[in-house]
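Late entry, evening session. Most of the bench is empty. Finally got around to the prediction I had been postponing all week. Sequence below, unchanged from the version circulated by S.P.
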Amino acid sequence: MTETTRPTLLEFPTRFPIKIMGSQHPEFVSTMVSLTQTHAPDFDQVDLTVRESSGGKYVSATVTITAISQAQLDNLYHDLTGHPLVKVVF
């Protein structure tokens, strides 16, 4: 099977939340929104939830997109996990 024909359990389009965690940084949220919009141009910030850790050292952003394909999700995860401000994506 090729990358484009790999089976998936998801049915597209689907609403899909992605939680992104990183160290507290003034541009963390805006950068994550920008990266998300690169892969999901219809992403609306209404579908963004931001939380700081209790100590204020870390921040998480949950973005919920309307995913249209597994490839779209794979590419978004790849860009998010490769970004230097990001610690973990799930």
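Two things to note before I forget:
The first strand starts at residue 14 and ends at 23.
The longest helix spans residues 28-39.
Will write this up properly tomorrow.
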